[in-house]
Amino acid sequence: MKSIFKVSLLAATVALAAGCQKEDETKVETAAAVEQVQTETGKTVAFKTEDDKAAYAIGVSFANYLSTSLDKPSEIGITLNKDLVLKGIEHVFAGSAELNEEETRAALEALDKRVAATMQEQAAEKSAEAKKAGDDFRVEFEKQDDVKKTDTGLLYQVMTPAEGEQPKDTDTVQVHYKGTLIDGTQFDSSYDRGEPATFPLNRVISGWTEGVQLMPVGSKFKFVIPPELAYGEQDTPTIPANSTLVFEVELLKIDNGEEAAQ
């Protein structure tokens, strides 16, 4: 894992500007030709030259980066004292750092390991919670009227019956669909995009490949798909690992292009 605190020469320059900012502000003489900006504290910073403005901009940029780097560990329960971060910057440019290069590297590597371990532990807990919630949801859904269960564990319910042709796993199908998590959070919808989706049936998650073959053209089904037939332990921004997924699917047609016309 890359360290979240790799300080470059640019960062070091910024640190100098940050550490000396208060002292520099008291020395700046205000003049009519000097450009001024208003800071969040209500004080003005005067720029005599473009170099002064560039130096300040570097400081702002680095501070934003540093603030983000400190906030991310706090999201997983690791609190880094910002005052000590600034103290470290001051000490480096005063030539009195209390950690040498080796000790600094070791401390940052240890932090990276703690962050990685904490994130892994939290991801495992989240995955286990999602699996249990999905198991419970499927048990309750299976109790509903007209719900059927296949040998693989796929659950489905016919919402709109039809008597059209049923596709094979080698067919290309056109569908409208909506996908949600078990709490109703929507993560995908062809309806919202305003056009149906067309895809080879053997190129999607196995729950879809199996389920859509059960559908006559013109029908609409609800599928409740266990994680092993969906994305399993894969974790994405919209679908947590080990999630049970709920899909409402309309099979519009079997669309094999030129093959269908032969």
Distance between the termini: 55 Å
The secondary structure category is alpha+beta
The helicity comes to 40-55%
The major β-sheet equals: 7 strands, antiparallel
Q: What best-fitting shape do the alpha-carbon axes yield?
A: elongated
- Could you name the CATH class of the largest domain? Alpha Beta
Low-confidence stretches: 1-34, 258-262
Number of helices: 8
Helix-strand pattern, N to C?
HHEEHHHEEEEHEHEEH
Mean pLDDT: 84
Number of domains: 2
User: Strand percentage, roughly?
Assistant: 15-25%
**Using DSSP, what is the number of strands?**
9
The radius of gyration over CA amounts to 29 Å
CATH fold topology of the largest domain: Chitinase A, domain 3
CATH architecture of the largest domain: Roll
Brief rundown of the structure:
The chain is of the alpha+beta class and 262 residues long. Helices cover 44% and strands 19% of the residues.
